[in-house]
């Protein structure tokens, strides 16, 4: 398995930091290499009706104070997105975090923009 992969951002939950269509360079990392504030790719638990949710881009807010083997996640856009504050989500186990976003690639017209995350 390669240590890096690309993800395309969909949806408004990480605005203004990320926009729909941005591409992220993501590095697979273990729990010891993560900390609050990192932008990560996660698997969310099923919704309240039991339907699977897509893999998502979220921000780690920190370890769960009741269980350090789990992470709290949030969206940058307070009006959009699923977060750990949603009772159907809660904190996520370490193995639900697939990697940390290191670089944002944004195409606007003929310009290509790169920025570190």
UniProtKB/TrEMBL annotation:
Chain intervals for the UniProt region annotation (Disordered): 40-78
Domain of life: Bacteria
Residue intervals of the Peptidase S24/S26A/S26B/S26C domain: 5-45
InterPro entries listed in its UniProt record: LexA/Signal_pep-like_sf (IPR036286), Peptidase_S24_S26A/B/C (IPR015927)
Coiled-coil stretches: none
Alphabetized Gene3D superfamilies for the sequence: Umud Fragment, subunit A
Record's protein name: Peptidase S24-like protein
Source species of the chain: Marihabitans asiaticum
């Amino acid at each position: 398995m390669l240590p890096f992969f690309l993800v395309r951002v969909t949806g408004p939950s990480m605005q203004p930091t990320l926009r729909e269509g941005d591409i992220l360079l993501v590095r697979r990392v273990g729990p010891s290499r993560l900390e609050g504030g990192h932008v990560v790719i996660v698997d969310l638990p099923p919704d309240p009706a039991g339907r699977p949710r897509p893999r998502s881009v979220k921000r780690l807010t920190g370890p769960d104070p009741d269980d350090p083997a789990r992470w709290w996640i949030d969206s940058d856009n307070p009006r959009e997105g699923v977060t750990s504050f949603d009772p159907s989500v809660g904190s996520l186990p370490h193995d639900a975090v697939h990697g940390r976003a290191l670089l944002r690639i944004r195409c606007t017209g003929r310009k290509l923009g790169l920025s570190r995350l």
